[in-house]
Design a protein that fits this description.
- The chain is α+β, with helices and mostly antiparallel strands.
- Strands 1, 2, 3, 4, 5, 6, 7, 8 and 9 form a 9-stranded antiparallel sheet that branches.
- It contains 3 helices and 9 strands.
- Helices cover 27% and strands 30% of the residues.
- Mean pLDDT is 85; it is low at 12-28.
- It has helices at residues 7-23, 127-137, 149-166; strands spanning 43-44, 47-51, 56-61, 67-73, 82-95, 99-104, 111-115, 120-124, 147-148.
Length: 173
């Protein structure tokens, strides 16, 4: 009687197992209900997201060189979000609890500020103008350091993981 585990079958079995090992880590484990996962879903493969203050986020596709500031619609799934584009071509971002500051590529006034409470965006030609605006409107705050998107992505997700471990209720979305 011949064994079913001859050399040819072993190669097929190896190929099936190897393919499964490659594909499974890339499977989408995103939340399945609309509005869930704002502070837990990092993105998928070549699409990354950085949550700011709900409902604002930065998304990047294929590269961390530039991203889009968006307002997320919580009636949609976080992995396939409906979003309103607020600002495009962002190359650096800084975060404060009341606002976010950013730098854009290829625009006349490359520095900006998103005010969370109103959703309004102000643009400035220089960092000095941006700093004056922050000091005038938010005297208790200082101009946050603007970082490249990849560095900001890593730091933000590290901070979120710490909060999840100590006080998960802070991340209700």
């Amino acid at each position: 009687m011949k064994s079913v585990w001859n050399g040819k079958n072993k190669k097929i079995l190896f190929l099936v197992i190897f393919t499964g090992m490659i594909l499974l880590p890339g499977c989408d484990d995103s939340p399945t209900r609309p509005g869930e996962g704002f502070y837990s879903y990092q993105g998928y493969r070549d699409w990354w997201r950085i949550p700011l203050r709900f409902p604002y986020q930065i998304t990047m596709i294929d590269t961390f060189d530039y991203g889009t500031l968006e307002k997320y619609d919580p009636s949609s799934l976080i992995a396939d979000p409906k979003c309103e584009t607020v600002v495009e071509n962002i190359s650096a971002i800084g975060y404060d609890g009341k606002f976010a500051v950013f730098q854009q590529r290829n625009v006349e006034k490359p520095y900006g500020c998103l005010i969370y409470a109103t959703g309004s965006v102000r643009n400035f030609a220089t960092t000095e103008e941006l700093d004056r605006f922050i000091k005038l409107n938010y005297p208790d705050s200082t101009l946050p350091e603007m970082m490249k998107l990849e560095k900001f992505y890593n730091l933000m997700w590290q901070a979120i993981e710490k909060i999840k471990q100590t006080d998960p209720q802070k991340l209700a979305y």
